[in-house]
Amino acid sequence: MLDSALKSQLETYLQRLTSPVEITAIVDDSSESGEMLALLADITSLTPKITVREVRDGEQRAPSFALARPGEQARIGFAGLPLGHEFTSLVLALLQVGGYPPKIDATTIEQIKALDAGQADGELVFETYISLSCQNCPDVVQALNLLALLNPRIRHTMIDGGLFEQEVMSRHILSVPAVFLNGEPFGQGRMSVEEILAKLDKNAAAREATRLKDSEPFDLLIVGGGPAGVSAAVYAARKGIRVGIAAERIGGQLLDTLGIENLISVPRTEGLKLSAALEQNVRSHGVDIMTQQRASKLVAGEMNEVQFESGASLKARSIVIATGARWREMNVPGEKEYRNRGVAYCPHCDGPLFKGRDVAVIGGGNSGVEAAIDLAGLVNHVTLIEFDTALRADAVLVGKLRGLANVTVLTHAQTTEVRGDGEKVTGLNYRDRASGETRSVQVAGIFVQIGLLPNTDWLSGTLALSDRGEIETDARGLTSIPGVYAAGDCTTVPYKQIIMAMGHGATAALGAFDHLIRTPLAAAA
After folding, report:
1. Is the sign of the CA dihedral 417, 191, 67, 84 positive or negative?
2. Which CATH number applies to 343-450?
3. 490 annotated active-site
């Protein structure tokens, strides 16, 4: 099942186990059960600390397995084969159940242990439906596994949606990760430990807001945690000033990016790996990191203030705004109603859920054409719809797309409506821009790939924005307000690329530092 190189690497990891791990495997006569047992056999061959017990139980999912310490009830389970992106989730679960301490701060550990189930049966039972190609799913799986590890009232099972298709269909799941709590929908999409705790612990946001309001002003506050924000934080921290970074999450759009092949000196990496490296780098510089904070208002003055939707607020002598951008929506009837019910924005994550069905891709740029190519290998048929008279993607991508027999390209077409039956997408309407006629396409899924919008709505009327909503900056990243700088995809800087954002973030931080050393402390105070 596992190749020799992977087994060798896994064997090294498993040497960190300090206590035994018992695996209970639920099997049947399917080939999938055979593959799961082969995987578990490879694992047990690497260490005597892990044992497997086979059970045939028609009342439980098969194939599946659960991990437990001797004498304890199993609280972490995997339904299916956790390979692909989920192999890391399996390795971490084995290590943590086997006594290897999780890399998480003590405050969060205590918050997890203090969670009260508040249920009649005293348990919080989580189920997470995933696809093995989803790069967002492991974060959710690992976060919920951690909760189950630390709190005996919590159980969690990862479920491969591609293997348990009947469950996916009966629960109307058309986007992953999809999390259920005690049988009811709990959350959709990427969630960190902190985000999950905020939903379970209703007082957590208020406590954090109070803590932030009482904190001392920063010399430099960065708003946004993508490549631009992290770069600004690292460059500023190296100047010896007090730096804070407030963001919804560290990584920004990197967390939704699969392959990266144009970052200088790095032949190839993935968004999740680069995001983790950025976070490790910024933490090593002693920067105060505050996540789950979405900015809502900028109050400029001698001591600038940023207010957040959580009710928190932070003050700083100077600010770098690096809030990035988000996926552009079609803004047509039915889009919001059927989001995550057939309307999707990540073909890598949700594509496997549409195996054997017809889908549409909206957008003929690089992202749209790449999505269509990827989906063509999974689904029955792809219809790509482009507003312009020709595809705008690179010629090599267009050539590959044109060679696929199960792809139809419609140019000079404008999507006008998403149709559905009340539960899921059934098709879309588009207008032929040449003839003016309205036509229909029957599809089960619609993948929107039409570019980005800057996250600057909260700045309207505060500082100068372009007609596209981008923050106007000078060569040093300075905005129209003294002491307030900006960087990255939320600005007018051309060519929205990771490396451009990093450089722009460094420029803005140096510009802000130059402002600080030229501004009298008494005036700022």
Report:
1. positive
2. 3.50.50.60
3. no
